[in-house]
Amino acid sequence: MKKWMKTSLIVALLFVSSCICFEKQTLVMRYDAAKDRLLIFQLYEGIYGENSEEALNADETREIASVLEGERTFFFANWILEYDRSGIEEELDDLSRKSGGADSASTASKRYATALGLGKLLLENVEVKNGRFFLNAEKKLSGYQLVTVKNASKIAAAANQFLSALILDPSTRPTASEDGWSEESIRLLVTAAEKGHAWFTLDENRIRFRLPCSYGDFGKARRKVAGALEEALAAAESRESRLAKLIRRFALALRGDLWISYGGDAVEFALGHTSCERVQLSGEPFDSEYKPNVVPFAEQHGGVAGSLDFREVMEAFLAGEAK
Hints:
alpha+beta; 26% strand
């Protein structure tokens, strides 16, 4: 889906380059159905800059400053998802200019409109609060964030409209020649979009994403992933391909309440379960080694606690008791 990854708002949310790393991330989430909000506790352990042994370089300094000064949060580095409020604001300005020149009846105009609607909802309803820097049990720099997503069901509905608009616009629809999709999968995608398919659904503590595709394409993707994983496991680190590294990190480092299945002409990714009180994922998204080069910056920006009982903060936040 190369076209999808190049399309407007998705670029503001996905695959943003990152040079600040962390040895481990733990995400704990609860859906507060009564208030229709997602409460997400983000814990980062072993925070460091990957490019320098002693001190942060200019890019790393800018990146961590943007996290402290703005509303920016990472979902397992940037290879699953990153939310950057300032990036979305810039993207919405660009979309507003582009939408002014589009035919109001065109599929491009509908794509712009749904992207603007989704972006505005995110800005209005996502709040990222930075917690304190502290040293974990291994005496490595760590930190946490409290992320609140209000009107979660409205955001899911807006995301569904946006994805359908992407599919229905020929300029952003995946193709067999560029993206390797079969004609059957493309037909399933278009049919689903025309019917207002619920790509994302949120029920209790489970977030599901259903992507229509043929079983043949699902099998090809599964074999490709399996092959890359086998390569990653067999190859020396210096000889690993970029794809192999990504697959190895995802398959071996990410653990928790995540399921992938196929049925009803669609592959489903499910995060959490309706019987769970909360959802937890943890992983080690980076391969480089920790170095204490962020500690001086952290000491100058709020200080570093020698130790911190983050669990008490997490429990109060997930219970909806945090101030």
